[in-house]
Design a protein that fits this description.
This protein is mainly alpha-helical. It folds into 3 domains: 130 residues, Alpha Horseshoe (MgtE N-terminal fold); 101 residues, Roll (CBS-domain); 173 residues, Orthogonal Bundle (Tetracycline Repressor, domain 2). The protein contains 22 helices and 6 strands. A 3-stranded mixed beta sheet has the order 1-2-3. A 3-stranded mixed beta sheet has the order 4-5-6. It is elongated, with a radius of gyration of 30 Å.
Length: 453
């Protein structure tokens, strides 16, 4: 298998493209098929539409399936529309059921029923089973291509079974043991099978301490199980204990990427609009509700400033420090928000850990406030020659940062308690709340000491 750096990839792609342009099937296959599937996908995506169509003709459906399942959903839709129906059906038949289900679930402009009807009956039924589950559950992301064995089978029989079914399974490092009712009763590793005597039965080799997940479990919970136990795959069972499928670590990596993207969207108040392939209209539509909401919060900020109009008129210089107070409060609160959301996402914050985390964040805010108060006190006194103004700004920044960390840490905890995603306590929301609190503190202190300024 050939590995390419950026320069070699460009040169190699030109050679492959030349083979396509002159329609030299043998040359193309010789150069293209020695590449890793990831390299094949990257080179395929550099081709123009006409050249991509030639790739379909030069590769078998099984070979092209490796490329297809590595494309994003938008590119997959474009490719499917260009494929011959028979070719597409054969390709879907060779793909893992979960990959086909993922495509059909995300596709916007394809006829799902037409594709399912064109597939082999057994393959189509497996895909339909996966599509029947709620999105983002273990059942929706599990694969049906795995090896299940009987507890009464001999080691030698299982090895023969592996030789026959192994090429079609996603993973064979662990085999799942079921009884006559298809109930999951144990797990046996490939290593134990290989070193066991030929006539040893699986029941004596398997471990009965099986960690599994429910088919209705949230995909994040499945990710936590795989991360906690360092599994390559975890079995998925129904409410009756029947083995329904497995979730592999490569699918979990996709889940983690998806969840991280979702949380990033929540943090930035742009959920659903972080994909660069989304149109400007769609991005604006998804961001608008948050922007409008935050705009109204901005009116509250303006009202706070308006309430202290007399103070500002008396000492106009106070206005120069408003951005400093607001920015510092927002930045500090967002940092604490990130700490809290990360702890909740990883499950590292329990009932005992909540108080510890809040105390730590408060302590951090106090220390940051003291440092900033000292720096600002010296700087403002030196620049403006007014030690009382320096005192007002310094004490305000100290109290603001101390409180901002508490707000940033506690709001996501409260939201999580309400059974909502803590990431919706987005950065802009926390920033706006802390802006308001910071201004109230600043102008309250300034108004109280106005006669001495």
């Amino acid at each position: 298998m050939v590995k390419l750096n950026n320069q070699k990839r460009e040169e190699y792609a030109k050679q492959i493209l030349k083979g396509l342009q002159v329609e030299d099937r043998e040359q193309f296959r010789e150069l293209f098929l020695v590449l890793h599937p990831t390299e094949q996908i990257e080179i395929f995506m550099t081709f123009e539409s006409g050249s991509q169509k030639l790739v379909h003709h030069f590769l078998t459906p099984e070979e092209f399936a490796e490329i297809f399942q590595g494309l994003d959903s938008i590119d997959q839709e474009k490719v499917v529309k260009e494929l011959d129906k028979t070719y597409a059906a054969e390709m879907f038949n060779t793909m893992y059921a979960d990959d086909v289900a993922d495509f059909l679930a995300e596709a916007q402009d394809v006829n799902v029923e037409t594709i399912l009807n064109s597939m082999d009956k057994v393959e189509a039924e497996e895909v339909k089973e996966l599509l029947a589950y709620e999105p983002e559950t273990a059942g929706a992301i599990m694969t049906k291509e795995f090896i299940r064995v009987s507890s009464a089978a001999k080691a030698s029989d299982v090895i023969r079974q592996l030789r026959q079914l192994g090429p079609e399974a996603e993973t064979i490092y662990y085999l799942y043991v079921v009884d006559r009712e298809e109930t999951l009763v144990g797990v046996v590793s490939l290593r134990d099978l290989i070193i066991a005597p030929e006539h040893e039965i699986v029941e004596h080799l398997m471990s009965t301490r099986v960690v599994s997940v429910s088919d209705t479990a949230d995909q994040e919970e499945v990710a936590k199980v795989i991360q906690k136990y360092d599994f390559l795959a975890v079995p998925v069972v129904t409410a009756k204990g029947t083995l329904a499928g497995i979730v592999t670590v490569d699918d979990i990596i996709d889940v983690l990427e998806e969840e991280a993207t979702e949380d990033l969207g929540e943090f930035s108040a742009s959920r659903g609009a972080t994909d660069v392939n989304v149109t400007a209209f769609t991005a604006a539509r998804k961001r608008a509700p948050w922007i409008i909401l935050l705009m109204f919060f901005g009116l509250i900020t303006a009202e706070v400033i308006g309430q202290f109009e007399e103070t500002l008129e008396a000492i106009v210089l106070l206005a120069a420090f408003i951005p400093l107070i607001m920015d510092s409060a927002g930045n500090t609160g967002t940092q604490s928000l990130a700490v809290a959301v990360r702890g909740l996402a990883l499950g590292t914050i329990n009932k005992k850990g909540v108080g510890k985390m809040i105390r730590r964040e408060f302590g951090t805010g106090v220390m940051l406030g003291l440092i900033c108060m000292l720096v600002l006190g010296i700087t403002v006194t030196f620049i403006h020659g007014n030690w009382l103004l320096a005192f007002i700004v310094g004490v305000s920044i100290f109290l603001t940062l101390s409180i901002a960390t508490i707000v940033g840490a506690t709001v996501p905890l409260i939201i999580n308690k309400l059974k909502l995603d803590p990431a919706i306590a987005s950065g802009p929301f926390i920033t706006t709340v802390n802006d308001i609190l910071g201004l109230l503190i600043y102008f309250s202190i300034a108004t109280a000491l106005l006669d001495f300024l």
